[in-house]
């Protein structure tokens, strides 16, 4: 179809900008509701954060509230998704432990666990004896640990393949390696113009561009407070399990939520946001992370950070000095100003939605984000207080001096 010499692609019910795990999830749940969906991706599908992360669905890192509620539902969804998508997603309820080394960490984690318990999350405190039963290779003077049986993991690459395979069977269309030049609001619809001269018309747009969501926001005059936060990860050779569960240091939680816990750490350690995360993939390789760095879109790894990560890993698990590190990589967590995802319609831009800013929770929250976004677009009731995740909350925070 042509209009004044310009190629007009087919009309769509929904165009999703961003072909990572969030965009693919949103597309899948919309397709189940019989919507005609197109994904626009500037590179390859999954080439952003979704293919440069670990595999954790870490409930213990969530403060009580909407994100914990949504993660709990996401875990339940993952339990049936392998069958639904007809692919083994390598989902496992392996459980997780946060390792505690001193009294300061112990006090902070005890208070945090009480809050989570009051909210219904089954987290318990373990003394040294019980820690060593579950983690026989951890340093012998470890003080204590938390334990949550619901902490899980999944292979994000297989999740994306599953959504893509099923989505394609349901009629999903894709355009990769594209550049969007304009997004224009029409009466009751949107027009997306691409660099190749083609125009796309759609009733709804979903900005699921992750760390690049602000660039898409600028095209409609919306300021989206998301920045890329680099995380560096090391991959080991395949080895037998070191313990019953995956493990994190209390510093990992501190770097994310309570910086006071690591005030005694070296300045550079704090600047890089070092916190040990140790999880074993189903292949037998361990993923060891990580950092939290604001370095723009620099996806390189650094000797300094990788050395610090391995120092922490070996300090807590001395046996790792006998394990080969075979590669490293870095990815961008799309981090919002307050650490919560941005999910919902943009005020004054009817039909334009955002599903981005999940930071390190994109894998954990992918299924529920897709389900919620599809419900919102279809005018169905959503049980969560979605105003807490709306873009508009940042205006309120600024007005209140936040």
Describe this structure in words.
The termini are far apart. With 402 residues, the protein is of the alpha+beta class. The protein is built from 11 helices and 20 strands. A hairpin with a 4-residue loop joins β12 (189-194) and β13 (199-207). Helices cover 31% and strands 27% of the residues.
CATH architecture of the largest domain: 3-Layer(bba) Sandwich
How widely separated are the two ends? 49 Å
Write down the oligomeric state. Answer: single chain
**Tally of DSSP β-strands:** 20
**Residues in β-strands, percent:** 25-35%
Here the CATH topology of the largest domain equals: FAD/NAD(P)-binding domain
The DSSP helix count reads 11
- Helix-strand category: alpha+beta
Query: What's the alpha carbon Rg, rounded to whole Å?
Result: 22 Å
Approximate helicity band: 25-40%
User: Spans with pLDDT under 50 lasting ≥5 residues?
Assistant: 1-5
CATH class category label of the largest domain: Alpha Beta
């Amino acid at each position: 179809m042509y209009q004044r010499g310009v190629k007009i692609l087919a009309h769509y019910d929904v165009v999703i900008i961003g072909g990572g795990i969030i965009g693919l999830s949103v597309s899948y749940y919309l397709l189940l509701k019989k919507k005609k969906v197109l994904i626009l991706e500037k590179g390859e599908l999954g080439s952003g954060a979704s293919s440069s992360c670990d595999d954790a669905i870490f409930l213990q890192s969530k403060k009580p509230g909407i994100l914990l509620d949504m993660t709990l539902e996401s875990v339940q969804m993952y339990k049936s998704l392998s069958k639904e998508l007809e692919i083994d997603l390598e989902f496992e309820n392996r459980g997780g432990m946060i390792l505690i080394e001193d009294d300061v960490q112990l006090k902070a984690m005890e208070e945090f666990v009480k809050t989570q318990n009051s909210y219904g999350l089954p987290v318990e405190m373990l003394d040294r004896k019980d820690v060593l039963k579950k983690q026989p290779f951890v340093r012998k003077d470890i003080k204590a640990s938390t334990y949550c049986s619901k902490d899980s993991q999944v292979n994000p690459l297989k999740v994306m393949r599953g959504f893509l395979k099923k989505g394609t069977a349901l009629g999903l269309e894709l355009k990769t390696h594209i550049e969007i030049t304009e997004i224009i609001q029409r009466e009751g619809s949107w027009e997306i113009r691409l660099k190749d001269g083609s125009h796309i018309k759609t009733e709804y747009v979903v900005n699921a561009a992750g760390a690049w969501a602000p660039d898409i926001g600028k095209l409609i005059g919306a300021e989206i407070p998301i920045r890329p936060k680099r995380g560096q990860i090391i991959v080991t050779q395949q080895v037998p399990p070191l313990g019953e569960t995956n493990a994190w240091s209390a510093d990992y939680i501190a770097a994310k939520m309570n910086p006071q816990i690591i005030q005694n750490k070296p300045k550079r350690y704090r600047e890089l946001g070092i916190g040990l995360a140790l999880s074993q993939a189903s292949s037998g390789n361990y993923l060891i992370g990580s950092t939290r760095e604001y370095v723009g879109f620099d996806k390189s790894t650094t000797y300094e950070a990788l050395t610090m990560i391995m120092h922490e890993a070996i300090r807590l698990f001395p046996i790792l000095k006998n394990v080969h590190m075979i590669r490293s990589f870095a990815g961008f967590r799309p981090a919002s100003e307050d650490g919560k995802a941005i999910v919902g319609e943009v005020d004054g831009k009817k039909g334009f939605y955002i599903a981005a800013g999940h930071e390190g929770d994109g894998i954990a929250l992918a299924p529920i984000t897709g389900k919620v976004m599809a419900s919102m677009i279809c005018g169905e009731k959503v049980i969560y207080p979605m105003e807490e995740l709306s873009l508009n909350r940042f205006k309120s925070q600024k007005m209140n001096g936040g």
